[in-house]
Amino acid sequence: xxxxxxxxxxxRAQISDEPGMEQELKPLEHFETYExxxxxxRGTHHQHVGTVHAPNPxxxxxxxxxxxxxxxxxxxxxxxxxxxxxxxxxxDDDIFSTTPDKQYREASPYKVMDRxxxxxxxxxx
Length: 125
Hints:
The protein contains three helices and three strands. The protein has about 120 residues and is an alpha+beta fold. Strands 2-1-3 form a three-stranded antiparallel β-sheet, covered by helices on one side. Strand 1 (about 30-40) and strand 2 form a beta hairpin. The longest helix has 13 residues, at about 110-125. About 5% of the residues are buried.
């Protein structure tokens, strides 16, 4: 029996659900999921903005640009296969146990930006 699906790509592939009748899909008959990251301004970090489904990275880049880069300001887009992303498990939280000891590496306690912005405002007026 052929699998019936709301997804036309599945129906078009004529996949059988009988045991032993597995069928290999050809390229472009199925899409992969890609994670999309974009950069709003040169020199800033790329931020994850969503996912797209595409047959290859080039199309994923195009779909990502159309989906996430056309509404707001965007200067660069990255795409990465979702299957290529490797993440830590929440059970492995002990790998972050030394993080609180490294606060000296952060510049967040220094409130210099307020003084810089005040100086710029004074110079502008």
